[in-house]
Amino acid sequence: MTTLTVGGQGFRPYDVVVGRGLLARAGERIAPLAKGRTVIVSDETVAAIHGQALSASLEAAGVRTQTITVPAGEASKSFAQLERVLDRLLEIGLDRKDVVVALGGGVVGDLAGLAAALYMRGIDFVQVPTTLLAQVDSSVGGKTAIDTPRGKNLVGAFHQPRLVLADIDVLATLPDKQLRSGWAEVLKHGLICDAAFFDWLAGDGAGGACGDPAALERAVVRSVEIKSAVVSEDEKEAGRRALLNLGHTFGHAVEAELGFEKAALAHGEAVALGCCLAFRYSAREGLCPEADARRVEAVIAAAGLPTRLDQAGTFDADRLLALMAGDKKAEGGALTLILARGIGQAFVAKGVDASSVRAFLIEEGAAG
Ligand SMILES: NC(=O)c1ccc[n+]([C@@H]2O[C@H](COP(=O)([O-])OP(=O)(O)OC[C@H]3O[C@@H](n4cnc5c(N)ncnc54)[C@H](O)[C@@H]3O)[C@@H](O)[C@H]2O)c1
Ligand SMILES: O=C(O)C(=O)C[C@@H](O)[C@H](O)[C@H](O)COP(=O)(O)O
Ligand SMILES: [Zn+2]
């Protein structure tokens, strides 16, 4: 088991505990934070598989608990579900000493975290991430949000959890597609700033993408270390935190274009494709060796993730560009992209020329 601490400078520090068998004993760790009651927010799938273990553990630790569920899937990151969750919290009558516990993937974490940020102007919440993606990424760092038809995560708040419990054992029930989706965010961390980690993920650690628990645990710990170091120094994305968005300006545009209701592509799949696009665009602009862009594509493809636009659907370059211009990193209508000088060497590029991105998207197969 590994305990990492996030924060300490700009915001109150909290622990991220990574290990095995954590769910069954979660109550012991959550009880000191919950002076009153807890409400577990989960999705219907996760609640059916893991909900009972968490509520039993809370009750055994003397913490009263109730559960609210939302439908599984990206479509639950919506105004409608946010309103429903807030209304249920009011009906249950939580007060400011009570705690929301998010049990699920990034959808549940983002939605429950935002509800906790808004409820009575902010109450505590704990993340119990049950997808690989949520363990390596979304449960850490305090970004919470819902989607709108105009784009991903455009309505949200920074609200840090009080505790994160990442139990590797719960990943055993995760469908392969979701394991691969989480693996994309793991690979992203290597691509941003740790070439040796990327090499390990592509070689000895590759079993993680197929569910090997030892490789998964190491991948989760290293990912949380990387993410924690970044968000601890730049909570609200004034600078360096934007690096964690590698692959996301392209990826979020693809997700929005495909529609959040259908969510044909899982978030991590869109990020994998987005990382390939970011590296190929970097190579096209002479910023990054072609060989690195090719290697990124090969490693991502070997993990069973998409690398080309036509694997995701058919796209129009102008529609994708319009969505990219609405990204939260854009400044005065000018594009900000996370580009790379090589594997492990991502950087923030502001004022990127939209016409060159448009030409690139057309070269990549989007309609002009
Ligand atoms: N806040 C952040 O920093 C951050 C970071 C990355 C991604 N995100 C967001 O996270 C979301 C994606 O999260 P996700 O990939 O976890 O998707 P998800 O929450 O939709 O979970 C994927 C699917 O797996 C199921 N599932 C979850 N845990 C399971 C388990 N242990 N066993 C069986 N089934 C299980 C869920 O019911 C769901 O159907 C996106 O909305 C993305 O924008 C946020
Ligand atoms: O934590 C961050 O910062 C990230 O960018 C992590 C991303 O993987 C994640 O998908 C995040 O939700 C994207 O944030 P957004 O600000 O682009 O909506
Ligand atoms: Zn992401």
Overall description:
Its main location: cytoplasm. It comes from Brevundimonas albigilva. This protein is of the alpha/beta class and 368 residues long. It folds into two domains: 172 residues, Rossmann fold (3-Layer(aba) Sandwich); 188 residues, Dehydroquinate synthase-like, alpha domain (Up-down Bundle), CATH 1.20.1090. It contains 13 helices and eleven strands. The chain has a seven-stranded mixed β-sheet. β5, α4 and β6 form a beta-alpha-beta unit. The longest helix is centred in the middle third of the chain and has 21 residues. The radius of gyration is 20 Å and the shape is globular. The site of zinc ion has 5 residues, from α10.
Quick overview of this protein structure:
Residues 182-330 form the 3-dehydroquinate synthase C-terminal domain. With 368 residues, this protein is an alpha/beta fold.
| Uncertain residue ranges | none
- Level-2 CATH architecture of the largest domain: Up-down Bundle
Instruction: Name the CATH homologous superfamily of the largest domain.
Output: Dehydroquinate synthase-like - alpha domain
| Quaternary status | single chain
Radius of gyration: 20 Å
- How are the strands of the largest sheet arranged? 1-2-9-6-5-3-4
Number of strands: 11
Count the DSSP helices: 13
Mean pLDDT: 97
Number of domains: 2
Quote the CATH topology of the largest domain: Dehydroquinate synthase-like, alpha domain
Question: What is the CATH domain class of the largest domain?
Answer: Mainly Alpha
Taking the sheet with the most strands, its summary is: 7 strands, mixed
Distance between the termini: 51 Å
Secondary structure class reads: alpha/beta
The coarse silhouette is globular
Q: Which band does the percent of strand residues land in?
A: 15-25%
User: Which ligands appear in the coordinates?
Assistant: nicotinamide-adenine-dinucleotide, ligand LNCXM5UN, zinc ion
State the share of residues found in helices, binned by percent: 40-55%
